[in-house]
């Protein structure tokens, strides 16, 4: 912590000798007042000392093809990435998100400035964000959102753990009025149908208050993108390559199926987007209780039902004891119920000497329940059920905040406060048949050995100072936190902005940060089924497991250190240009160094693990240090064009993350590739696009509005280690387009498409494709292809 204390002292000294600036006075749509970045509510995007994007969601709901918050941000913020995953257990039902090439758990999400809880789900299926625990943006009804503020800078000194890469603040609607939309769409393959209703209604509450109700009810059908478009279980590779099956054990699968009077198409391998149903309800209310005293409350419930598919078990893979149940093999179905509840309630009071006091309590709870259908437990033979309750996991977070702020004069704004947070994580075992003797195929249930209850609490104090003199502005922040399970941390931030000519400025920031290991990373353990490569090169499905870092095996046999916090330092330097009131340009570079980054190891094999019934194990560890560097560009232009209004937005991100150091246990007896192999390095360094850009063009005239958007997803690399090869997937351009027409003053009809030219990632090489089944890897923009939609929008 010496580095943190030294930095805080340095920041205070620099701030005390600096000269500071005046706000820009122009007032148009580019001057959005933002809540993130500092606690000065007079700050706008134009004069912010750090980069902030403000996304007007209400306009996108009407015009854009995307229907979820993840998808919307994926196509309008280049440094933001979210890709749907296939056959990846719970990760199929909650899409992990990343910002600036960092992990999902290094992005903090706020709602109305209050911390949002994370999910209870650990991503462990070697997808983007492997080993991380993110926030489920899809649990927030899109109809409840007024706008979204994306702070692209480290902010742990202001908001605490998880804000290493940046902050996403979701601002809810708070004005009277109503709106609704009905959307229907499907892919060019005729699958992936979507039905979506979203709406909100607001009314006055008391003299100066309001209450807004919002709801979303939606369903997305599954898509299937297997080896060919006829949906055969192997496509052109239905007969196994004997090089991969030298014993020829599976060569007769086709004959077995035909002998039962069936064909290949009766055994379609379902690989693609999972089927998802959502029911979401939110409320946002505020009212004046007395003079200068205001009560506010917001939050709601999200109920999600997901249906995903595992690897298919072929006739040759089903033992004789279970052949009477599935003579032709089977493909298991994973059904999940994801329930999410949240509420923030608080009091805001303004004293006679203009101090603003905010006391609030924020509660969040996320629960995942698993049921496996169309499966079997081989050890139970012909008596095995074909459906199992496989258990659940849950996460609870409760945060109490007391904040004070005051604008001392036109040059000085101060804020300080404290926070108490309690967190609890729990795993509940499934029914016995789901986990005993190998458990239910495809998804092994949680056993009593996995069942756990773990909790912790933390306290924090922060101070935030905003200064403004002449042509300089500065924001200075410091934060102290104490966690009951790993101790203290102190972090600081200094952000400066200098306007060297009217409308032209240079800005920069330096900050330290941290991320506490999540309770999920501390306590999660399970067994699961995956592909494994034998010494002779053959592949088989085996049982693997994630064991707890604090377990005897992890600590005393493998020799891992106990989990500790990640520590980071973040530098940024940027330029802003506003040559006219219609044109705004920002260019920001950044460098983020993270020490002791928490990751999930590769598959570790050891005789001790085999004695415990696990072929291979993975463990959470502070295994690596990383460095991330990149550049963000944003160009925004709007004008009158003819009799209509034209707007153009160009934004791009270039970033690169490299592992600069490994922390291998001195007592490690296995090969380094088992500890953190090429597959895991690939996920950190090259599985997300290093280049991404978006050009958005909009035009409205009379009753018509038009949208054309091109998004470039750069090259990614997929490493199939240990049973595949390294493959580069070239960059792709995805085009969205829509046309809207105002039928009446309050009714609009919009038609359009996402990925109108039906662009897919490059086809996978055979050895990465699970015998040709996974034709496309779910990288870059996913594997859905073209999606067409029609939407009716109403205002009332």
From TrEMBL:
The lineage of its organism: Bacteria, Pseudomonadati, Bacteroidota, Flavobacteriia, Flavobacteriales. InterPro entries: Beta-barrel_TonB (IPR000531), Beta-barrel_TonB_sf (IPR036942), Plug_dom (IPR012910), Plug_dom_sf (IPR037066), TonB-dep_rcpt-like (IPR039426). The keyword Transport applies. It comes from Faecalibacter rhinopitheci. Residues 1-21 form the signal peptide. Gene3D superfamilies: TonB-dependent receptor, beta-barrel domain (2.40.170.20), TonB-dependent receptor, plug domain (2.170.130.10). It is found in: Cell outer membrane. It is a multi-pass membrane protein. Belongs to the TonB-dependent receptor family. The keyword Membrane applies. Its main location: membrane. This is TonB-dependent receptor. GO terms for cellular component: cell outer membrane.
